[in-house]
């Protein structure tokens, strides 16, 4: 029995999972879960990296206490684009910024002053979007250049924490593709691009392929946690790459959908799709664990619901998952729609008010009750996925028959059913812990326990259960889609 630790850090919580692989069965067990949200101070949003690392160590201590000895390796996956800076001595330089910080909007303007969207997309294959690492760096370079002057290394979040465990500085390929600073063809940092934005070349720790063994856990960590040295692997550092690896896709007519704070909907392709159309429709090309690419659309996802629930909690009228589902059921369908990917939804102070404002501005009826608000969000998300699927089919020339949904978001059964209805495609939902499972698969590949992703996906199919949702009510959803597409033709600041 091989046992590995998978740290999956998300933008609302993080967890340590223990994976057990018997040779033909994979099992995953949650050891520790903790809250992780950006912290607002001095006018910026930061990640509390010290708390994150401390929680990770708590996770290991818990695992040891539960008697999980003989761990073969450990790997970390996280959300994309964010990074930490290190001094020459290897100490952390300031708190890492969150991509929700509004500096990214200044950043994207600065980047576009020097690089056209066409050039940007052509080099990196990544959709020009404010959240990209390059925008943060451009904003920091303008506002606080001393920070970059003092920096000796830049490590993306999974690699930053892997460094804290192993002492080895390297940026793994899949997470590096989210920066839009990587030359997608050469699979390494684009030096010209770094020059254009005066990012000191030396700070970009080298790019390593997924599955690279960085080295054993540091002696100081072993002593503190009372463990034997454990190999730290740079598996696939990006949570979405992990999710794709662990979704039981049957063939290339299956799309993947990783559902969490963000919802990433895409297909695995051999070559990046870098065309006028893919740029115009806001698609992006990121790396997969096995050397291919993920053609996908980054969509706002359950963030919209999480933020509304936060507002209601603050008002003292928070709701549970069960109430959420009941409210959606009661609310009138197809009242109003929003384009979930408008920049205004990236980090508003009050998401409920923002959604109401957008409905009003677009001359639709304004949702008032919790059920109405939730229904606007869920129906709009589902309709947006039809929009994405249809465009993806045009870009690849392949019809999508099935959508494999995974991640915490599939616990929302309305989201799964609405996605099936809006797209009129079968939805196969599961597993929930898809990023942690993918993280473990990355380690098992590196350890030579499994041979390729096809094998990994059949292992997932035989080890975990899924739920199938068949499309319903085609006529009503067709009419809704026509209204939705008319709406998103207006005010398209971000598709
Ligand atoms: C989802 C995700 C997504 C984006 C975003 C910043 O967790 O990784 O793919 O990169 O975070």
UniProtKB/TrEMBL annotation:
InterPro entries reported in the protein's UniProt record: ATPase_NBD (IPR043129), FGGY_C (IPR018485), FGGY_N (IPR018484), Rhamnulokinase (IPR013449)
Pfam family, one: FGGY_C
GO biological process terms, semicolon-separated: glycerol metabolic process; rhamnose catabolic process
Domain Carbohydrate kinase FGGY N-terminal: 6-244
GO CC annotation: cytosol
Domain spans labelled Carbohydrate kinase FGGY C-terminal: 256-446
Keywords: ATP-binding, Disulfide bond, Kinase, Nucleotide-binding, Rhamnose metabolism, Transferase
GO molecular-function terms, A-Z: ATP binding; glycerol kinase activity; rhamnulokinase activity
Family statement drawn from the similarity comment of this UniProt entry: Belongs to the FGGY kinase family.
Name of the protein described by the UniProt record: Rhamnulokinase
């Amino acid at each position: 029995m091989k046992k590995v630790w998978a740290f999956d850090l998300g933008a609302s919580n993080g967890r340590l999972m223990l994976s057990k692989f018997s040779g033909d069965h994979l099992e995953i067990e949650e050891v520790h879960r903790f809250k992780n949200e950006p912290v607002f101070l001095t006018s910026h949003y930061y990640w509390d990296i010290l708390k994150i690392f401390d929680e990770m160590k708590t996770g290991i201590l818990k695992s040891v206490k539960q008697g999980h000895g003989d761990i073969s390796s450990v790997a970390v996956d996280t959300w994309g684009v964010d990074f930490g800076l290190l001094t020459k001595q290897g100490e952390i330089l300031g708190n890492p910024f969150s991509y929700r910080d509004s500096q990214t909007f200044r950043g994207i303007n600065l980047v576009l002053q020097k690089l056209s969207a066409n050039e940007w997309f052509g080099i990196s294959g990544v959709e020009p979007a404010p959240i990209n690492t390059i925008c943060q760096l451009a904003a920091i370079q303008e506002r606080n250049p001393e920070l970059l002057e003092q920096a000796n290394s830049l490590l993306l979040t999974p690699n930053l924490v892997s460094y804290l465990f192993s002492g080895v500085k390297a940026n793994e390929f899949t997470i590096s593709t989210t920066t839009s600073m990587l030359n997608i063809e050469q699979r390494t940092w684009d030096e010209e691009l770094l020059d254009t934005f005066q990012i000191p070349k030396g700070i970009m720790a080298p790019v390593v392929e997924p599955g690279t063994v960085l080295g054993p856990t540091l002696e100081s960590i072993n002593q503190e946690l009372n463990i034997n040295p454990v190999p730290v692997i740079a598996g696939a550092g990006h949570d979405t790459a992990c999710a794709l690896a662990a979704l039981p896709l049957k063939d290339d007519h299956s799309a993947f959908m990783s559902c969490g704070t963000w919802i990433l909907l895409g297909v695995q392709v051999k070559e990046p799709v870098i065309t006028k159309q893919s740029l115009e429709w806001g698609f992006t090309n990121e790396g997969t664990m096995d050397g291919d690419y993920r053609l996908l659309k980054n969509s706002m996802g359950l963030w919209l619901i999480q933020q509304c629930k936060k507002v209601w909690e603050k008002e003292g009228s928070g709701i549970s998952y069960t109430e959420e589902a009941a409210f959606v059921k009661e609310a009138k369908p197809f009242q109003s729609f929003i384009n979930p990917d408008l920049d205004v939804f990236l980090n508003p102070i009050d998401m409920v008010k923002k959604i109401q404002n957008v409905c009003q501005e677009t001359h639709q009826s304004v949702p008032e009750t919790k059920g109405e608000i939730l229904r606007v969000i869920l129906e709009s998300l589902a309709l947006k996925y039809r929009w994405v699927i249809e465009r993806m089919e045009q870009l690849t020339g392949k019809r999508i028959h099935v959508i494999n949904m995974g991640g915490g978001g599939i616990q929302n059964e309305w989201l799964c059913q609405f996605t099936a209805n809006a797209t009129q495609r079968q939805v196969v939902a599961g597993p929930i812990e898809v990023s942690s499972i993918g993280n473990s698969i990355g380690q098992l590949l590196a350890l030579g326990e499994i041979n390729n992703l096809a094998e990994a996906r059949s292992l997932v199919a035989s080890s975990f259960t899924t739920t199938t949702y068949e499309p319903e009510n085609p006529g009503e959803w067709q009419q809704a889609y026509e209204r939705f597409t008319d709406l998103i033709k207006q005010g398209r600041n971000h598709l």
